[in-house]
């Protein structure tokens, strides 16, 4: 959300720090807001009742001045922590010493590739611990505008690296574990921090051929809305009890998201039961202003703020609310009830964070600098990178033979440091580039940067060939850097940029072992490298964070074994000519080859879920308990379940055997369902469960249990309803199926969840 428009917010935010109200001796001491025996709703209501109208309106923007006469401090609602505490208006790193850095994890796209929910929960717990420590030091607020949980629909999207990938089930499972880690469980007595699921909804375009996110109208079918664009948000709201949502810049079917009562009220608050008094919606930064222009949805600024507030946007990241709600009030476009509702939600959220409670009664107010960037956190940042890094090609060159002593490290990512953090990052304690890691492993390292990422011509780069010719093996680290002006900018091509492919080809002609590190957030078409037998290995390294170089080099050297899986499809370069970015539909048509592994009708270069190991695995899936099930009986057995889609179906045991004799390795079990059931066209297959086993020893086995629900088998109809259909079902274990099981559902199709109609 950092944009030219939002610079105003940044400027306004200067010197606004968190500080707690004095409930012992301050003016609020005897108010119910300070009474720990009252409910959050009672406490927040009592507080807001003390505000004048002008004080209320003044506190509707992200940089809230508080109410000085009541001893209510100023509060900055805007903190970022996409993969560690990140520079943002509310997060203030010190220049040096204590609080001058925090743990910097890989970007979500690489953590998504780990397919390890427990890892995500641990990472989120560290991030919230560090956030609390910064807050206690008056260097951060308690509300974090993370995660970005829009599915990565189109490979051109400039912000896809901020997400865990393209699959809705994967996003649901990931975000559940992330939110519970950030907030400290489902309904803790005190929230660790408040997380914010963004950008609701159907936001995945920055600026493509003049279609700009601030004014883009995403035309989305109810089927795609329910099945693809909002499933992660449903998990945030209904299942993980997230504290906040952010409405997006774009419109959905003609109505800007932040003025969209269908999205914010009918679906989010009513259908998903997001009704707690402390749950609030912020706008993306200046998205309220964008309703006026460039959406041109409301005729006046007063009507604009009224539309947003009345629809359920409680907080404005920006200044339109404080500037124009007074006019809207005078014109009777809003009323005090709605204004109070918004403020009560926000301050009830601060109540749940312990903001008004004595420090000594709370679990997180003692955290300090000793809890930031701990050895445990640093190890976790390294582990997250190792787990996500994905091996795409290997002819046996990796792991490197111990005979290799001299390495040439070449390319625009070979000595990458800050670059490894991608975007939305803070100050890391250290940044280990591949070059530094190779030196630490005692290789003799020869370095030459070679071409830049986008160097267009074919200069000779003699220094690079000089070091390459002296080395036992060559590591070329390049690819893309989608975060260079990523936000507010999409890509037009998905091939290896500039002169890099030609340069790699020339390097390969030296006939030395050559390993290509394809870095950056999205996928680019590797088909120029795959058939070249002199390109011995390809590794996708994403944005691996503070220990990224160490993780990459440990995998290359054989100190760690790769087991990441692509969380996105690697499409061929023609894809960008086959469908405009603005076409939101997932299913194939005459003008759309289909989107994601579920619907793409072409042949991917590497498919979703692809990833090699240093060993071979065989994996078997246990048989279902029956060959056939009756839909009505399955549903009847769920009587009393709060949500039918979450009602258990069957649990399957997966037995994973490492059949190799040399390398222990993790293994990710991916379970898909395919078959003829539900509306046509049928998807290729759909991910329904996954789990990561750790350290399967050579010639040994481990098992895991994959749990399916009725929702795993259901599909969406034209109205967006979730329906269990009779038909044929086949379970496929792994992308090139290691094991399959089939069964039949009989009886009548039954709706598990009715989707609200607009
Ligand atoms: C927090 O920091 C701000 C800005 O430096 C300062 O004005 C305020 O007094 C600090 N509050 C506390 C409680 O230290
Ligand atoms: C709160 O109430 C106590 C007891 O009645 C009184 O002594 C104190 O002055 C009051 N404090 C404030 C801020 O009104
Ligand atoms: C509200 O904000 C305006 C603009 O910053 C300021 O002039 C005014 O004094 C504030 N009102 C109150 C009651 O704090
Ligand atoms: C709203 O109306 C009141 C009463 O007429 C006036 O004092 C105030 O300035 C108006 N506020 C705005 C923002 O126009
Ligand atoms: C306040 O405004 C909302 C939204 O327009 C409306 O639904 C509600 O009835 C109004 N309440 C009162 C008390 O006027
Ligand atoms: C914070 O650090 C202190 C001192 O090392 C330690 O005792 C405590 O367990 C840590 N708390 C957390 C939540 O890590
Ligand atoms: C690698 O990057 C680091 C950090 O930017 C820099 O200090 C170092 O000089 C670079 N190494 C080489 C060989 O360029
Ligand atoms: C590299 O060499 C140094 C000095 O001989 C030694 O202390 C260190 O343990 C070696 N590191 C590795 C990873 O072998
Ligand atoms: C995996 O199995 C294949 C086929 O048997 C074999 O060629 C290959 O060497 C094995 N790879 C490893 C890493 O064990
Ligand atoms: C909806 O949420 C409320 C409050 O969290 C809860 O009491 C209720 O059980 C939920 N409804 C369902 C159907 O789970
Ligand atoms: C898993 O498969 C291996 C290899 O077939 C077999 O030896 C082992 O007994 C199986 N383990 C379980 C728990 O079924
Ligand atoms: C499946 O459910 C069982 C029993 O609740 C649980 O132990 C197991 O961890 C679940 N499997 C996964 C992959 O979450």
From TrEMBL:
Organism placement in taxonomy: Eukaryota, Fungi, Dikarya, Basidiomycota, Agaricomycotina
Domain Fibronectin type III-like: 667-737
Protein name (Swiss-Prot/TrEMBL): xylan 1,4-beta-xylosidase
Pathway(s) served: Glycan degradation; xylan degradation
Subcellular location: Secreted
UniProt GO BP: arabinan catabolic process; xylan catabolic process
Major site of localization recorded for this protein: secreted
InterPro entries recorded: BXL (IPR044993), Fn3-like (IPR026891), GH (IPR017853), Glyco_hydro_3_C (IPR002772), Glyco_hydro_3_C_sf (IPR036881), Glyco_hydro_3_N (IPR001764), Glyco_hydro_3_N_sf (IPR036962), Ig-like_fold (IPR013783)
Catalytic activity: Hydrolysis of (1->4)-beta-D-xylans, to remove successive D-xylose residues from the non-reducing termini
EC identifiers of the protein: 3.2.1.37
One cellular component (GO) term of this entry: extracellular region
Signal peptide: 1-18
Single annotated GO MF: alpha-L-arabinofuranosidase activity
SUPFAM superfamilies, A to Z: (Trans)glycosidases, Beta-D-glucan exohydrolase, C-terminal domain
UniProt keyword annotations, A-Z: Carbohydrate metabolism, Glycoprotein, Glycosidase, Hydrolase, Polysaccharide degradation, Secreted, Signal, Xylan degradation
């Amino acid at each position: 959300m950092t944009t030219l428009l939002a610079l105003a917010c940044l400027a306004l935010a200067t010197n606004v720090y968190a500080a707690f109200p004095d409930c012992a001796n301050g003016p609020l001491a005897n108010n119910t807001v300070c009474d720990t025996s009252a409910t959050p709703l009672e406490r927040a209501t009592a507080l807001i009742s003390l505000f004048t109208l002008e004080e209320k309106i003044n506190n509707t923007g992200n940089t809230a001045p508080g109410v000085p006469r009541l001893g209510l401090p100023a509060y900055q609602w805007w903190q970022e922590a996409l993969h560690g505490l990140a520079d943002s208006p509310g997060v203030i790193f010190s220049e040096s010493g204590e609080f001058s850095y925090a743990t910097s994890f890989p970007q979500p796209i690489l953590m998504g590739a780990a397919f390890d929910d427990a890892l995500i929960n641990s990472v989120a717990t560290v991030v919230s611990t560090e956030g609390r420590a910064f807050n206690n030091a008056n260097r951060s607020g308690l509300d974090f505008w993370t995660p970005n949980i829009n599915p990565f629909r189109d490979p051109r999207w400039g912000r896809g690296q901020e997400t865990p990938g393209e699959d809705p089930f994967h996003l649901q499972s990931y975000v559940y574990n992330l939110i519970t880690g950030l907030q400290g469980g489902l309904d803790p007595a005190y929230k660790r921090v408040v997380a914010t699921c963004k950008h609701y909804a159907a936001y995945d375009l920055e600026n493509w051929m003049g279609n700009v996110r601030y004014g883009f109208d995403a035309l989305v079918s109810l089927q795609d809305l329910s099945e693809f664009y909002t499933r992660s948000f449903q998990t945030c709201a209904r299942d993980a009890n997230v504290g906040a949502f952010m409405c997006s810049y774009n419109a959905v079917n003609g109505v800007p998201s932040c003025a969209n009562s269908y999205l914010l009220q009918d679906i989010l608050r009513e259908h998903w039961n997001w009704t707690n008094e402390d749950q609030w919606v912020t706008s993306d930064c200046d998205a309220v202003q964008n309703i006026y222009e460039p959406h041109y949805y409301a005729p006046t600024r007063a009507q604009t703020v009224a539309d947003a507030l009345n629809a359920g946007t409680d907080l404005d990241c920006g200044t339109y609310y404080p500037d124009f709600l007074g006019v809207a009030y005078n014109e009777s476009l809003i009323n005090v009830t709605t204004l109070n509702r918004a403020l009560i939600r926000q301050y009830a959220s601060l109540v749940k964070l312990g903001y008004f409670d004595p420090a000594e009664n709370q679990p997180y107010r003692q955290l300090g600098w000793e809890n930031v960037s701990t050895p445990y956190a640093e190890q976790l940042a390294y582990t997250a990178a190792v787990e996500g890094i994905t091996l795409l090609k290997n002819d046996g060159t990796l792991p490197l033979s111990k005979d290799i002593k001299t390495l040439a490290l070449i390319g625009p990512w070979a000595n990458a440091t800050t670059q490894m953090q991608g975007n939305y990052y803070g100050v890391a304690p250290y940044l280990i580039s591949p070059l530094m890691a190779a030196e630490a492993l005692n290789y003799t390292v020869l370095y030459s940067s070679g071409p830049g990422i986008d160097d267009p011509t074919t200069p000779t780069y003699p220094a690079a060939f000089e070091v390459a010719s002296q080395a036992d093996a060559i590591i070329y680290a390049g690819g893309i850097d989608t975060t260079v002006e990523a936000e507010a900018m999409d890509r037009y091509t998905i091939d290896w940029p500039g002169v890099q492919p030609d340069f790699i080809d020339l390097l390969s002609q030296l006939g030395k072992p050559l390993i290509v590190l394809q870095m950056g957030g999205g996928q680019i078409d590797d088909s120029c490298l795959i058939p070249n037998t002199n390109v011995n290995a390809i590794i996708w390294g994403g944005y691996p964070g503070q220990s990224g170089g160490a993780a990459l080099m440990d995998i290359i050297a054989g100190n760690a074994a790769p087991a990441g899986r692509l969380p996105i499809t690697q499409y061929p370069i023609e894809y960008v000519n086959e469908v405009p970015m603005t076409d939101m539909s997932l299913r194939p048509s005459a003008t759309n080859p289909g989107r994601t592994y579920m619907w793409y009708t072409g042949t991917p270069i590497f498919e979703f879920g692809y990833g090699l190991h240093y060993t071979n695995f065989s994996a078997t899936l246990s048989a279902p308990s029956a060959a056939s099930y009756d839909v009505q009986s399955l549903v009847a057995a769920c009587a009393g379940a709060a949500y039918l889609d979450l009602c258990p179906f069957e649990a399957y045991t997966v037995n994973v055997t490492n059949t190799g004799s040399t390398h222990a390795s993790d293994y990710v079990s991916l379970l898909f369902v395919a078959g003829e059931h539900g509306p046509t066209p049928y998807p290729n297959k759909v991910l329904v469960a996954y789990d990561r086993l750790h350290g399967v020893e050579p010639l040994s086995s481990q098992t895991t249990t994959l749990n399916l629900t009725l929702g795993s088998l259901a599909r969406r109809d034209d109205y967006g309803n979730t329906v269990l259909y009779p038909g044929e079902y086949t379970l496929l274990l792994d992308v090139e199926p290691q094991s399959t099981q089939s069964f039949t559902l009989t009886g009548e199709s039954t709706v598990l969840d009715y989707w609200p109609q607009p």
